[in-house]
Write a structure and sequence with these properties.
With about 350 residues, this protein is of the alpha/beta class. It folds into two domains: about 5-175, 3-Layer(aba) Sandwich (Rossmann fold); about 220-345. Helices cover about 50% and strands about 5% of the residues. Strands 2-3-4-1-5 form a five-stranded parallel sheet, with helices on both faces. Helix 11 packs parallel to helix 14 (about 295-300), helix 12 packs across helix 13 and helix 13 (about 260-290) runs antiparallel to helix 15. The radius of gyration is 22 Å and the shape is globular. The structure holds zinc ion. Zinc ion binds near residues 54, 63 and 69.
Length: about 350
C-alpha cells in the first residue's frame, strides 16, 4: 500500500483528515504532538498543500498539477505560511508572529492570516518548533487561535503535550503521531541517496537503533556515529564512570562534524539519544529483569544491576542536556556539565 503523499507511518491520521475534509469539518487549529524525527513537520506541509489544492484527489491527496500545488511545491504559495525557530535563537521570535516593533500587526504570521486567500479558498499556517514558543509569543497567538479566520487552518507542531502552554493546548485539536516502526524507517531510507549503497543488514541495524525517528536513523547511517553508539554503551557500562573520559570522547565525535553549528548539534543529539536508550534499558532491567534486545546494550547495562534509581537520575540529566541543545547552549560546556553529572548524579535543585 502506498503511504499517504509519500509519508510513511501516519496513514490513519491522514484518513482522519480526509474524512473531516470530505464532511467540510476541518478544524481551525491543530496541535501535532509526537517524538522528534517521525515526520510531523513534513506531514503538516503536505497537508497544507492538499488543503489548498484546487482539485484534491480522494483521500485528501494533492493533485500536484494545479497552480496552487505548483506554488506549494516551490515554497512560494502566498496562502501557506511556515514559521520555525531560527537556528541561532532559543525561542520563536515574536516578530515572526506579529511583525517587528515598527510593524506590529502589519506583518507576521498572525497578520497574514487575516488577509483573504490569494489563490484558493483556504489559508494554512504551520508553526514548527511549538515547544520553543515562549509565553510572550504564545500570548500573541492566543487571539488568532481563539478565533481563527473562517478559511484558515493553523497547525502547531510540538513534541510533548506537557511542553505546550495550557492556554495553547486548550485551544487546539490534538493529533498524536507515533514513533515509526523499524520497517517503515527502512522503506524511507531505501529511497534516499545516502542509504543506497548500504546492505539490508546495516539498514536494519540503523532502523532498529533509531527509536522510531527518521532523523536519528539518518544520523546513524554514518559509520562513525553507529560505531560510537557501541563505544558509548561500553563507557556508560564501565563503573565507576569517568566523566572526563566520556566528555573527551563525545566532544571528539561532535568536532568531527566540522565548524557549522547545525551538524554539530545534530551529532550531539544522536549521542544523547543513544545515552537515553542506555539509561532506559538500565531502568527497565532493574525494574523487570528484562534484558535489552540490542546486543551492544546487554553486557553494558548488566553492570548497572540494582542501580535503577541512579539510572533514572542520569536519564533526567540527559534529557536536560538535550533541552540545552534546543536552547542553543555552548556545546563544550554542555557536554562537560552533562558528563560531570553522570559521574556524580544528583537530583536537580528545584528552582
Ligand atoms: Zn492541486
Amino acid at each position: 500500500m502506498m503511504a499517504w503523499q509519500g509519508i510513511e507511518g501516519h496513514d490513519a491520521i491522514a484518513a482522519e483528515f480526509a474524512r473531516a475534509h470530505a464532511r467540510g469539518r476541518v478544524a481551525g487549529t491543530y496541535l501535532f504532538i509526537g517524538p522528534p524525527g517521525v515526520g510531523k513537520g513534513m506531514f503538516a506541509r503536505r497537508l497544507a498543500k492538499a488543503l489548498t489544492c484546487a482539485a484534491p484527489r480522494a483521500g485528501l491527496v494533492a493533485c500536484e498539477s494545479c497552480a496552487s500545488c505548483v506554488q506549494a511545491e516551490a515554497g512560494s504559495h502566498p496562502d501557506i505560511d511556515v514559521v520555525q525557530k531560527p537556528e541561532d535563537k532559543a525561542t520563536i521570535p515574536i516578530d515572526l508572529l506579529i511583525g517587528d516593533a515598527d510593524h506590529r500587526m502589519r506583518e507576521g504570521l498572525c497578520w497574514r492570516l487575516l488577509l483573504k486567500p490569494a489563490v484558493g479558498g483556504r489559508k494554512v499556517a504551520v508553526i514548527l518548533d511549538a515547544d520553543q514558543l515562549a509565553e510572550e509569543a504564545a500570548n500573541c497567538l492566543l487571539k488568532t487561535l481563539e478565533e481563527p479566520p473562517p478559511e484558515a487552518v493553523i497547525i502547531l507542531v510540538g513534541t510533548a503535550l506537557e511542553r505546550q502552554l495550557p492556554t495553547i493546548r486548550s485551544r487546539c485539536q490534538i493529533v498524536r503521531f507515533r514513533p515509526l516502526a523499524a520497517d517503515e524507517i527502512v522503506r524511507v531510507l531505501r529511497g534516499e541517496p545516502a542509504a543506497r549503497q548500504l546492505d539490508g543488514e546495516r539498514l536494519a541495524a540503523c532502523a532498529a537503533s533509531a527509536g522510531g525517528s527518521l532523523d536519528r536513523a539518518r544520523q546513524l547511517l554514518d559509520d562513525e556515529l553507529m560505531a560510537f553508539r557501541a563505544a558509548l554503551f561500553r563507557i556508560l557500562g564501565t563503573r565507576p564512570l569517568r566523566g572526563v573520559d566520556l566528555a573527551r570522547e563525545v566532544l571528539a565525535v561532535v568536532d568531527a562534524a566540522g565548524k557549522e553549528a547545525p551538524p554539530r548539534r545534530a551529532r550531539l543529539r544522536t549521542v544523547l539519544d543513544s545515552a537515553l536508550d542506555f539509561f532506559r534499558a538500565a531502568i527497565r532491567q532493574d525494574a523487570t529483569g528484562q534484558q535489552p534486545a540490542e546486543a551492544a546494550l546487554t553486557a553494558a547495562v548488566a553492570s548497572w544491576h540494582g542501580d535503577g534509581e541512579r539510572a533514572a537520575t542520569c536519564l533526567a540529566h540527559t534529557l536536560d542536556a538535550l533541552d540545552g541543545i534546543e536552547r542553543n547552549a555552548y556545546l563544550p560546556i554542555l557536554v562537560d556539565a552533562w558528563t560531570a553529572l553522570l559521574e556524580e548524579p544528583r537530583l536537580a535543585q528545584s528552582s
